[in-house]
Design a protein that fits this description.
This protein is of the alpha+beta class and 183 residues long. It has 4 helices and 8 strands; from the N terminus they run ββααβββαβαββ. The protein has one domain: Aminopeptidase (3-Layer(aba) Sandwich), CATH 3.40.630.
């Protein structure tokens, strides 16, 4: 496997590819999946975002968003990424910091795939990228992601919560979580 590919017992995390677009439009860009992520996007916005992900993946300081596949039957199930906090509404201490995020197709919820893939990316963030801290963000309305952050070992940082005008009132305030690199 290429250095940019990560693997777990059940999953393969591959760099994004143009061939992911049809799957993203059909399985990820849905009202249910995108309900806490500012809603469904136009096909053009999804295509532009995928092109940005592809270009950024191997850039020295670019973000990385892996497409997550089942190892045994090559089915796409979701995406996990390491991004830079970019919201102008975020507190200054967060600006430009690395955060982890995930999105999984609804058909694959509740099977532990998101947690398993996120753990692989967390190991990569601390071991390969040598990040001192990793951040994650959601809102209290996104109970599933909040539970997952706790399960992964993130610590809530209520003093850093903020209102993000890019999200509707029900998805505000943004809650901020952190995880320090292992000693």
């Amino acid at each position: 496997m290429a250095e940019s590919t990560l693997a777990t017992e059940r999953l393969i995390l591959r760099p994004p590819a143009a061939e992911d677009l049809g799957w993203l439009l059909a399985e990820v860009n849905t009202p249910q999946v995108m309900r806490h992520l500012a809603g469904v996007r136009t096909p053009e916005q999804v295509a532009e975002s995928l092109a940005d992900d592809i270009a950024a993946f191997d850039a020295p300081d670019g973000h990385r968003r892996w497409t997550v596949w089942l190892a045994d039957d090559a089915t796409r199930v979701g995406r996990v990424g390491l991004f830079h906090v970019r919201s102008p509404a975020a507190p200054p201490v967060l600006q430009g910091q690395r955060e982890i995020g995930w999105t999984f197709a609804e058909a694959h919820w509740g099977q532990g795939y998101a947690t398993e893939a996120a753990r692989a990316v967390i190991v990569h963030a601390f071991a390969a990228l040598r990040l001192p801290v990793l951040w994650s963000q959601t809102s209290d309305s996104n109970a599933a992601s909040t539970r997952m952050m706790r399960r992964l070992g993130f610590t809530p940082r209520p003093e850093l919560g903020y209102v993000d005008p890019d999200y509707p009132p029900q998805d505000n305030p943004t809650t901020v979580w952190s995880m320090d690199a292992p000693a």
